[in-house]
Design brief:
The complex is a heterodimer of chains A (about 200) and B (about 325). Chain A is mainly alpha-helical and about 200 residues long. Chain A contains seven helices and two strands. Chain A has helices spanning about 20-40, 45-65, 70-95, 110-130, 145-155, 155-180, 190-195; strands spanning about 5, 135. In chain A, helix 2 runs antiparallel to helix 3. Chain B is built from twelve helices and no strands. Chain B has helices at about 1-35, 55-65, 75-90, 110-130, 135-165, 170-180, 185, 190-200, 215, 225-250, 260-285, 290-320. Chain B has one domain (about 1-320). The chains are: A mainly alpha (about 200), B mainly alpha (about 325). The interface of A and B includes residues 49 and 95 of A.
Chain lengths: ~200, ~325
């Protein structure tokens, strides 16, 4: 831990209303709202676009926490690539304008349970891990590229490498899956669509 | 108070550059293309060699009726041009034009990432337009845009990473401070790949399959009229400015050159202008790539080349350190 991130000295409440904190809270509410709309809207493409808002809001939160590098990577990977991939998939299969009443899968209670459980675990872990850790905004940037890179490749190399192996496995798996369909006819890409 | 004034002046200068430079590129395109094809191009608007042609075009666009198709998704259809245009305005903030401390809109610690991330967002505008128009040609254009972005984003990132490795920083002014002249031959492959992939991301010829007018009318922009259509066109030319500026900063040494202390900004502009000329030149010289050729070119040519560039950068970096 760098020196400026220290356990809270006296005088820092959880909600001392500085401008940054108010902004953080407001952006958080907007992000949460966008996330809720993402899962409740009946229009498929709108859901994907609200996801852009939610992910972008998250990037702003990272920025407010001085993690500039993470924020831009968030935009680059999620908004720039994952959502584009999602939209591409939607357009390739079907992307009706207007409501799609069959968009609900009937797994609503299960999904809600999983979501609540995941949120509970995450909130608990984060609160337990950081409790009253305080970021001193005036003492230089804490989440700069240099700092993030150093902690990533000095303290967290093993998880990082494990993750890359996991991604590689997913990549190989995707190739295997797409090959199996392509054997009998030359139009492997069309198969998934016809099954719907 | 001084800070506020400073920020306001910077933003004003940026806005001015954002409004003027794309028009200059557009007018140059008119004239250069014309002369390459043995024509004169616009000659009347404004008097001297038709310099005001694009201003006249703008006035024409502003007068046209703004039509939203009946079957379209109204709000997204209307929002799309803004999503396509604004990212390029934001990117300009991070591009340094001179050696002085104040010669950049805002020094960003992770400048390369900011620039590439925000440029990627611009493509969402084309996708939104393609989907919301409720037109099969638009949808096809949107599909092609998405496929093209996914293929060409990777080599762009990889070659930018190569420069960042060479400089040991991801901040754009930092990269320019570390620049030496022999970086140009060292990173030349990466530079060519970056520029080519950028052209594809902007959907400029020969990578303009997403808006191929002889096949799918005008791709995602088919249903647009008036000012909104003009905004899409402006986004394309602003994209050229941004791409050429970025290539200049990353691979050609930006403001480095003789008398860089006083004339640094001129070097940046000059290099950017030469690259913009190359963009226009390519449009006139090369036929459009077919969709499968586009994908093959990205995955079997550009990505291996950029990986080789990264390997070369790593080896040289280890040897000289």
């Amino acid at each position: 831990m760098s020196p400026a991130v220290h356990l809270a000295a006296t005088g820092h409440g959880f909600l001392s209303p500085t401008g940054v904190e108010i902004a953080f809270l407001l952006v958080g509410i907007a992000t949460f709202g966008a996330a809720v709309v993402t899962v409740t809207t009946r229009q498929l493409v709108h859901a994907a676009l609200w996801l852009v808002v939610a992910l972008g809001g998250l990037a702003v939160e990272y920025l407010l926490l001085t993690a500039e590098f993470i924020a831009w990577v968030q935009v680059l990977i999620y908004v720039g690539s994952v959502v584009v991939l999602l939209l591409f998939g939607l357009m390739l299969t079907r992307a009706p304008i207007g409501r799609s009443p069959d968009a609900d899968s009937g797994n609503r209670p299960a999904a809600l349970a999983v979501a609540v459980a995941a949120a509970g675990v995450l909130v608990w872990v984060v609160v337990d891990a950081f409790r009253t850790t305080w970021i001193e905004l005036d003492k230089g940037v804490q989440g700069s590229t240099a700092v993030s890179g150093e902690s990533l490749f000095r303290h967290w190399v093993l998880p990082f490498e494990a993750l890359s192996v996991l991604l590689l496995a997913a990549l190989v798996g995707a190739i295997v899956l797409s090959r199996r369909h392509g054997h009998d006819s030359g139009r492997g890409a069309g198969h998934g669509k016809e099954k719907r | 108070m001084n800070d506020v004034l400073d920020v306001a002046l910077r933003l004003l200068a940026l806005l001015l550059a954002f409004l003027v430079l794309p028009l200059v590129v557009g007018q140059t395109e008119h004239k250069v293309m014309a002369h390459m094809q043995g024509r004169l191009g616009p000659m009347y608007a404004g008097g001297f060699h038709g310099w005001a042609q694009l201003v006249a075009d703008g006035v024409k666009f502003a007068q046209k009726e703004d039509v939203v198709p009946a079957g379209a998704d109204r709000r997204i259809f209307q929002l799309a041009p803004a999503v396509a245009l604004l990212p390029y305005l934001l990117v300009l903030v991070a591009i340094p034009i001179g050696p002085a401390e104040g010669a950049v809109g805002q020094v960003l610690d992770a400048g390369i990432f900011f620039v590439l991330a925000v440029m990627g967002v611009g493509v969402l505008g084309s996708l939104m337009a393609g989907w919301a128009s409720a037109n099969k040609f638009s949808l096809l254009g949107g599909l092609r845009t998405a496929a093209q972005l996914m293929a060409y984003e990777l080599p762009m990132l990889l070659t930018a990473a190569s420069v960042a490795m060479a400089a040991g920083t991801v901040s754009l002014p930092g990269i320019l401070d570390a620049f030496e002249w022999w970086w140009v031959p060292w990173q030349i492959v990466g530079g060519v790949v970056f520029f080519t992939a950028g052209l594809a991301e902007l959907q400029r010829p020969p990578f303009d399959a997403p808006i191929a007018d002889s096949e799918i009318i005008f791709g995602a922009y088919t249903e647009y009229t008036g000012l909104r259509f003009a905004l899409f066109l402006l986004a394309e030319y602003a994209g050229i400015v941004v791409l050429c500026g970025l290539t200049t900063v990353l691979f050609l040494g930006g403001w480095h050159g003789p008398f860089a202390d006083g004339l640094g900004w001129l070097w940046t502009l000059l290099k950017t202008a030469v690259l913009a000329f190359v963009v226009i030149w390519l449009r006139v010289s090369y036929p459009r790539l077919r969709e499968d050729q586009l994908q093959r070119f990205a995955w079997t040519c550009l990505i291996p080349l950029s990986l080789a560039q990264i390997a070369l950068t790593g080896v040289v970096k280890v040897v000289i350190s």
